[in-house]
Amino acid sequence: AIMSEAENVEETEEVTVEEAEATELRALVSGCIHRHAAYAAVGGLVPIPFLELAASSTIQLRMVAKLCDAYGVSFSENAIKSSISTLVATVLPVTGVGYATASLIRRVPVVGTIFGVVAMPAFAAACTYALGRVFAWHFAKGGTIANFDADEASEKFQDEFAEGKRKASEFVKGGKTTTAKSTGGAATAKA
Fold this sequence. Notes:
Low-confidence stretches: 94-98, 104-118, 175-191
Order of helices and strands: HHHHHH
Shape: globular
Number of helices: 6
Strand content: under 5%
Structural class: mainly alpha
Distance between the termini: 44 Å
Oligomer: single chain
């Protein structure tokens, strides 16, 4: 069957609209993830041990809620908290011991201050970035909060965390972050 010119144009317009919507969603999601990673980095500057962890957790929950909104997925704070904890634990050296040690190092004059100003914000930003990327990936392939498997996603989270650390380190050094993984140009979109 030969398509009429009108049918061909209509089909092309549908594809173009779908592509535009997908590009807009990627830009919205990318902006949301990067913005919340920056918020987490600022939260990591809080000089009170464990308070910065609470700030990061709140920021991460808010980001996942925003991603749920963007993808039309219903959000459940209780369901997501354990998934976030499971994923973040995969990048903490010996689980909480690494965090406790880092908090104690921050109290050492000069060295602790330098560590606190660089390491904790970078860790918080990298974790938030990785969480955002993993949840966005899961939602983009049709996943929901109910069928999210943190154990299954842990390897992807660790890869995204490594990318997040690289981006955070470039940011701390004052460089621009560009990568092949970049998903969109309109990072000014609010999510």
